[in-house]
Write a structure and sequence with these properties.
about 300 residues, alpha/beta, six-stranded mixed β-sheet, about 10% strand, 12 helices
Length: about 300
């Protein structure tokens, strides 16, 4: 199945932010000047400057006049602004702002490097595993309708792997992710089979850090490094149950890339990892002895 690429307002918004941020810094203007020009407060101007808020078409025209941008280039920027004002599918479901941003960025990423210390990455999850994970989090007072919307969005996110030109996906998981299970053995067996099958695709690499490695940094954490095309900065996205944040400053990128390189070096090779996953699948497929009355 080949999935078409649709308009991406998340990335369009960030492209404009990077473009005008660079011009602002080159001209030495502060955010107060930009706020006055666009008739917004400084906080709103800051959100425009970072891509957290979208530019209106009239904002782009005013900035083009400020910077003396040629008409042909202004027309191109206005078209990007118009795209940024559209509503993509991930902006029409109940998710946190940062989760929506992540999905939009994933749609345009050249490569995604993901470390998972406690749960199968969302891009590899089966629906029933995602539902089991959602039930496990039900003690956090999550609205069932919101939870279902999040699971539906997670399944749709995976369509990027079926595109004609999918991103390169490289996943490193702790063995605890593979070993923990999902209460029902069949659910986990099918989930690991899904991981095994996706790992066979030429643009996907899966490695596992075995228990033999013992303790290591961030063994229970989860993060992604998303490599972007063109002028867009690469993104580091970190998440746990209570916090989502994306950062694109060079210091965070450098330190996270160093950590990623260490984690890849600790992990089993892709071939060894596939063998380990296969052993867990075989173990889950074995008949389980019935529990006695005293169990």
């Amino acid at each position: 199945m080949t999935v078409a690429v649709e308009a991406n307002p998340t990335v369009a918004r960030r492209r404009l932010a990077v473009y005008f941020n660079r011009l602002r810094e080159q001209h030495g203007y502060d955010l107060t000047k930009i706020a006055g020009l666009l008739d917004v407060n400084v906080s709103q101007a800051s959100r425009l400057d970072t891509g957290a808020r979208g530019f209106r078409v009239q904002d782009v025209s005013r900035l083009c006049r400020l910077y003396g941008i040629e008409p042909a280039e202004e027309a191109r920027l206005v078209a990007i602004a118009e795209e940024s004002r559209k509503r993509a599918w991930w902006q029409q479901v109940f998710l946190s702002d940062s989760a929506r941003t992540l999905i939009g960025i994933e749609q345009a990423a050249l490569s995604i490097s993901e470390f998972a210390g406690s749960v199968i990455p969302g891009l590899l999850q089966t629906r029933e595993y995602a539902e089991a994970a959602g039930r496990a989090a039900s003690g956090l007072d999550i609205d069932p309708r919101q939870l279902q919307a999040a699971i539906d969005a997670r399944m749709r996110r995976q369509e990027i792997l079926d595109r004609a030109n999918p991103p390169e996906l490289w996943v490193v998981m702790d063995e605890a992710v593979v070993a923990r299970g999902a209460r029902r053995h069949g659910v986990m067996a099918r989930q690991l089979e899904r991981v095994r099958q996706v790992a066979e695709r030429p643009h996907v690499t899966v490695q596992v850090i075995g228990f033999d490695e013992g303790l290591y940094a961030l063994s229970s954490h989860h993060f992604q490094i998303l490599e972007m095309a063109g002028e867009l900065p690469d993104i580091v996205y970190t998440e746990d149950i209570l916090h989502h944040a994306d950062k694109s400053d060079e210091k965070v990128l450098r330190s996270t890339r160093r950590l990623w390189d260490r984690l890849r070096a600790l992990a089993l090779s892709p071939e060894e990892s596939a063998g380990l996953i296969e052993r867990y699948i075989d173990d889950l497929d074995r008949p389980r002895p019935a529990k006695s009355a005293t169990d």
